[in-house]
Design brief:
The complex is a heterodimer. In chain A, 0% of the residues lie in helices and 46% in strands. Chain A is built from no helices and eleven strands. The mean pLDDT of chain A is 96. By secondary structure, chain B is mostly beta strands. In chain B, strands 2, 4, 5, 6, 9, 10 and 11 form a seven-stranded mixed sheet that branches. Classes of the chains: A mainly beta, B mainly beta. Chains A and B meet through strand 4, strand 5, strand 9 and strand 10 of A and strand 5 and strand 10 of B.
Chain lengths: 112, 117
């Protein structure tokens, strides 16, 4: 199974600043057939279900603000949140969609 | 508007069975892969199972293989999870999620399954 390890486990960032969350995969998530990285990000606010943010490592889901961006390739990926807002307080999960079983990182708690 | 609504969660004894349902609207259900993902209290997300739009491909996480069965009825726009031989560690909020292949692009609100004697 592919293991995803996120860092840090938690972080506190000031309003208006930038937050950076990392996700490291135990296996290469870059497909040789289509040159895409099979890595997604999800946001879970307190008391709510998760919300899909990003797929293919950098493609935003419909309606996701461009303050959220994903980057990386192969085994190392990053979620960046610019101009942090109070509404961004959440736990963020990376998820590989490369192969079954689908796996998630352990989550990163973002606080203001 | 895309919606998926789970139901069927309950308190059940260890060794018991439960069937979860998920009713979808707002998208072409039969064309979409569908997932079940669970979250134990205070824990992270754990993917459980996936089924292709026509039901021809199915996959499970190892911990539920042989105990859980995912299925769908496209005429009813419904997804199901039959859970047998339930264990304490199956206690979780179970989410139905819409997929584009293995990409999860929309989550339901979840239904709570509690396994306890």
């Amino acid at each position: 199974d592919i293991v995803l390890t996120q860092s840090p486990d938690s972080l506190a960032v000031s309003l208006g600043e930038r937050a950076t969350i990392n996700c490291k995969s135990s296996q290469n998530l870059l497909s040789g057939s289509d040159s895409r990285n099979y890595l997604a990000w999800h946001q879970q606010k307190p008391g709510q279900p998760p919300k899909a943010l990003i797929y293919w490592a950098s493609a935003r889901q419909s309606g996701v603000p461009d303050r959220f961006s994903g980057s990386g390739s192969g085994t190392n990926f990053t979620l960046t949140i610019n101009s942090l807002q109070a509404a961004d307080v959440a736990v963020y999960y990376c998820q590989q969609h490369y192969s079954a079983p689908i796996t998630f990182g352990q989550g990163t708690r973002l606080e203001i | 508007e895309v919606q998926v609504v789970e139901s069927g969660g309950d308190l059940v004894r260890p060794g018991g069975s439960l069937r979860l349902s998920c009713t979808a609207s707002g998208f072409t259900f039969s064309a979409c892969w569908m997932h079940w993902v669970r979250q134990a209290p205070g824990k992270g997300l754990e993917w459980v199972a996936i089924i292709k739009g026509d039901g021809s491909q199915i996959s499970y996480v190892d911990s539920v293989k042989g105990r859980f069965t995912i299925s769908r009825d496209n005429a009813k726009r419904s997804l199901y999870l039959q859970m047998d031989s339930l264990r304490d560690d199956d206690t979780a909020l179970y989410y139905c999620a819409k997929g584009a292949g293995y990409v999860i692009d929309f989550w339901g609100q979840g239904t709570l399954v509690t396994v306890s004697s």
